[in-house]
């Protein structure tokens, strides 16, 4: 005989999720990091469920010069209602876990997803108003320039690099939603009397979803992108290169020598680098990981900034040019010395 209740194990997962939501009250939900040469230590805006934190006063002082509104907790109605909404969902998770009613689980998940969509839309609207509604009498005005921070990820705003990413509370909120989805999937598998191996597979998949955060290279826009080191427009697709940081920022270069110089002069920490790519000298000039690339150096290559180093995805292509030009094969470790 079928029952309307799900298992105690799923109930425990939901109760744990509810406790995590209550913990969000005490930690930041979101953060926006600002990096600029004049602030090597960086600036940070922290967004809690009921207030703003971090370097609010310094950021307000800087934004005053470009006509942006100052930030004050009292100006946001969201901070007055958000604690109650989070507490509601925390209690909803716990009650659903205790009663183990299947209909409550589906209702909970639907409302949770809808709230997440509305919250992100409201956040985007706030960022848009904040970055576009500027004081026309500001001390510094750049025609056509808007200062809307990124919803998530990285964006360059004048000489500031802005990173918008979840903080501890945001990740707890995301994990709670994933666990609610996992609970539904597990319940459906159990109802259909699937094997225990499939239940384990779902748990592994959920763990992978929570822990994975992938970044990938961006294509070089010839004639549009500027070199992050020398600021020259990237015009030759055969010699381009990229650094991907652990935070997802993409640094583009018109020459491998610019990339290497940028690494050494700015002292980019090794643990801040996710991966490094160079353009394939042949074919469509796709970006290839330097760890699997073959390099050839020759004065006859004449790269944009005289680094004169070409990267190849396979050794046969490199040997063709090696036999055509005088030069030498070189490995990445020697290039970065």
Protein model, in words:
The chain has helices at residues 8-23, 56-65, 78-99, 102-132, 168-191, 196-211, 256-265, 315-324, 332-335, and strands spanning 30-36, 39-47, 52-54, 153-157, 160-166, 241-245, 250-253, 273-279, 287-289, 294-297, 309-312, 328-330. The strands form three sheets. A five-stranded antiparallel β-sheet has the order 3-2-1-5-4. Strands 7-6-8-9 form a four-stranded antiparallel β-sheet. A hairpin with a 4-residue loop joins strand 2 and strand 3 (52-54). Helix 3 (78-99) packs antiparallel against helix 4, helix 4 packs antiparallel against helix 5 (168-191) and helix 5 runs antiparallel to helix 6 (196-211). The protein has two domains: 8-211; 241-335, no CATH class. It has 337 residues and is of the alpha+beta class. It has nine helices and twelve strands.
Q: Layout of SSEs?
A:
Elements: H1 8-23, E1 30-36, E2 39-47, E3 52-54, H2 56-65, H3 78-99, H4 102-132, E4 153-157, E5 160-166, H5 168-191, H6 196-211, E6 241-245, E7 250-253, H7 256-265, E8 273-279, E9 287-289, E10 294-297, E11 309-312, H8 315-324, E12 328-330, H9 332-335
Antiparallel strand pairs: 1-2, 1-5, 2-3, 4-5, 6-7, 6-8, 8-9, 10-11, 10-12
């Amino acid at each position: 005989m079928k029952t309307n209740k799900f298992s105690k194990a799923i109930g425990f997962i939901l109760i744990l999720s509810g406790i995590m939501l209550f913990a969000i009250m005490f930690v930041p939900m979101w953060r926006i990091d600002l990096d600029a040469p004049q602030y090597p230590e960086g600036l940070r805006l922290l967004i809690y469920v009921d207030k703003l934190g971090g370097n609010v006063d310094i950021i307000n002082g800087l934004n005053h010069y470009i006509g942006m509104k100052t930030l004050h907790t009292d100006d946001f109605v969201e901070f007055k209602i958000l604690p109650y909404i989070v507490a509601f969902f925390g209690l909803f998770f716990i009650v659903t876990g205790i009663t183990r009613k299947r209909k409550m689980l589906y209702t909970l998940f639907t409302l949770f997803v809808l709230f997440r969509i509305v919250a992100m839309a409201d956040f985007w609207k706030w960022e848009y108003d904040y970055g576009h509604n500027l004081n026309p009498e500001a001390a510094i005005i750049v025609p056509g320039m808007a200062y809307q921070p990124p919803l998530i990820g990285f964006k360059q705003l004048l000489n500031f690099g802005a990173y918008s990413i979840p903080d501890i509370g945001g990740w707890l909120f995301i994990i709670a939603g994933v666990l609610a989805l996992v609970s539904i999937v597990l319940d459906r598998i159990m109802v259909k009397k699937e094997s225990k191996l499939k239940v384990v597979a779902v748990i592994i998949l959920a763990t992978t979803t929570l822990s994975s955060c992938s970044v990938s290279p961006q294509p070089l826009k010839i004639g549009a992108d500027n070199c992050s080191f020398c600021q020259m427009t990237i015009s030759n697709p055969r010699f381009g290169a990229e650094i991907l940081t652990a935070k997802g920022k993409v640094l583009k270069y018109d020459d491998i020598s610019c990339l290497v110089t940028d690494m050494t002069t700015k002292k980019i920490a090794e643990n801040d680098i996710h991966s490094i790519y160079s353009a394939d000298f042949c074919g469509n000039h796709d970006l290839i990981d330097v760890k699997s690339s073959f390099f050839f150096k020759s004065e006859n290559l004449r790269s944009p900034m005289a680094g004169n180093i070409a990267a190849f995805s396979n050794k046969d292509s490199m040997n063709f040019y090696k036999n055509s030009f005088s030069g030498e094969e070189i490995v990445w470790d020697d290039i970065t010395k």
